[in-house]
Design brief:
Layout (H helix, E strand, L loop, with lengths): L6 H29 L20 H4 L9 H9 L2 H11 L1
């Protein structure tokens, strides 16, 4: 693997590749020792790990519905004292 014209840089890169492979092998051994040989997550799909309606992005989605746009516009353009009064009354 020659990524540089300098042989010293190429030697260092080869050394880093070898160290990376060694660390990867150590990590594989550690995971195998902890979880066993057959512990693999290749067939697991994280997108199906929980119901869509329980996601936070779905729980707050009502804020972006069309009927609320005029209310948000009015609130944003109201004077500061009106917004503070609304916040105080809401909490």
């Amino acid at each position: 693997m020659a990524l540089s014209h300098d042989p010293a840089v190429n030697a260092k890169l080869e050394e880093l590749v070898a160290r990376d492979a060694e660390f990867g092998a150590r990590a594989e051994l550690r995971v195998t020792a902890k979880y066993g040989k057959d512990a693999s997550m290749e067939d697991y799909h994280f997108s199906k790990s929980f119901a869509r309606e329980s996601q936070a992005s779905q729980q707050i989605d009502w804020v972006h519905q069309g009927w609320l746009r005029p209310v948000r516009f009015a609130y944003r353009h109201a004077p500061r004292w009106v917004r503070f009064a609304i916040k105080k009354a809401a909490s």
